[in-house]
Specification:
Elements: H1 2-22, E1 24-37, E2 42-44, E3 53-65, H2 66-71, E4 79-82, H3 83-86, H4 93-118, E5 123-135, E6 150-154, E7 157-158, H5 162-170, E8 177-184, E9 187-194, E10 196-197, E11 205-206, E12 209-219, E13 223-225, H6 236-247, E14 257-260, E15 263-264, E16 270-271, H7 276-285, E17 290-294, H8 303-314, E18 319-323, H9 326-334
Parallel strand pairs: 3-14, 14-17, 17-18
Antiparallel strand pairs: 1-3, 1-4, 2-13, 5-6, 5-12, 6-7, 6-8, 8-9, 10-11, 15-16
Pfam families: Lon_C, PDZ_2
EC number: 3.4.21.53
Catalytic activity: Hydrolysis of proteins in presence of ATP
Length: 337
């Protein structure tokens, strides 16, 4: 009898453990990730080696199970997000991953251009197509276009940039038909779509897609960024600083360990990111001396202000520095002793 009771108890415990681990809840859980040195990832041909290090910071994220859901209620800097706050409506896991990888590519292209321009090295960039980043459910493009499709023409007109495409569509009216030609897996397809109002912005009409311009960037000397499976645009600032540091003779790190985060565009403007507190924790755990945080032009709840609060909470000696542009970060580093 006792043996049978033990067996039932064991089986119940095993089932409960499996449920805790494998049952997925409608949430994502995020937590501090790592602060990773960029020098092994960024390769400028014959680039300078430096004493300090520039690091990108990451946030670990995964679909919540029962165990991680409970942990998120007791562990500091573990945060829960409903699915709809992470993935766009109707977006599959594969589409979400692809969107993040495309955002990383866009971020790398901008970082290269900014770094080479500031280092006064030869760089050119030409648009080579418009990519679909997401598709809005219920809009004309649903079931027609997919994330990663490259739109090449509208009504027979070549579209090199997302701005060109958006401007062309803005001239149309609700119900107007446009012929879309796109490439997917090397094959070209065409379809006619009727423009419709966006559900959240009825005054705007469109296809129901968000877009990204893909650029062909040519540099001298050549550069390669091995971002592996890192997704999202938040490493843009730190990529640009690492590329610049390899291009110039001076060592802008001055021997310090420098972490940070922030998107960057072709003009060198830095934008906000998610998970700023978790990235501050990751940078502190990696022993960073300095952390760059997007200032958002002094906004009340800016990334910078959140980063300062977190730094005080964890009692770090790491200096948190507000930046709005690449120039802000560069000036700060050049002024270091």
């Amino acid at each position: 009898m006792k043996k049978r009771t033990y067996m039932i108890t064991f089986l119940l415990g095993a089932v409960a453990s499996l449920l805790f681990i494998f049952v997925q809840l409608p949430y994502y859980v995020t937590m501090p990730g790592t602060a990773q040195a960029l020098e092994p990832l960024v390769h400028v041909e014959n680039g300078d080696k430096d004493e300090g290090s520039l690091m990108l910071t990451t946030v670990r994220m995964g679909r919540a199970n029962i165990a991680s859901y409970l942990l998120a209620h007791v562990r500091p800097y573990y945060e829960l997000y409903p699915l709809q706050e992470i993935k766009q409506e109707g977006e599959t896991d594969e589409e979400y991953t692809n969107r993040q990888l495309y955002l990383m590519e866009e971020s790398k292209e901008a970082a290269i251009v900014v770094a080479y321009k500031n280092a006064h090295k030869p760089v050119s960039y030409q648009p080579r197509g418009v990519y679909v980043m997401s598709v809005v459910p219920g809009m004309p493009a649903e079931h027609i276009l997919q994330v990663g499709d490259r739109i090449v023409r509208i009504d027979g007109k070549t579209m090199n940039t997302s701005e060109q495409l958006i401007q062309y569509v803005r001239q149309k009216k609700k119900g107007d038909q446009v012929s879309i030609t796109w490439k997917r897996n090397g094959k070209e397809k065409t379809a006619s779509l009727s423009l419709a109002p966006f559900p959240q912005s009825p005054q705007q009409i469109g296809l129901g897609v968000s877009l990204m311009t893909d650029y062909d960037v040519v540099t001298e000397p050549p550069v390669r960024i091995d971002s592996e499976k890192i997704g999202g645009p938040s490493a843009g600032l730190m990529f640009s600083l690492e590329i610049y540091n390899q291009l110039v003779e001076e060592d802008i790190t001055k021997g310090y360990k420098i972490a940070g985060t922030g998107t960057i565009n072709m003009n060198g403007e830095i934008g906000p990111i998610g998970g700023i507190s978790q990235k501050v924790v990751a940078a502190d755990q990696a022993g960073a001396d300095i952390f760059f945080a997007p200032n958002e032009k002094g906004a009340k709840n800016s990334n910078y202000r959140q980063a300062v609060k977190t730094a005080k909470k964890i009692g770090t000696k790491m200096k948190v520095v507000p930046v709005d542009t690449f120039d802000d970060a560069l000036r700060y580093l050049q002024a270091l002793q």
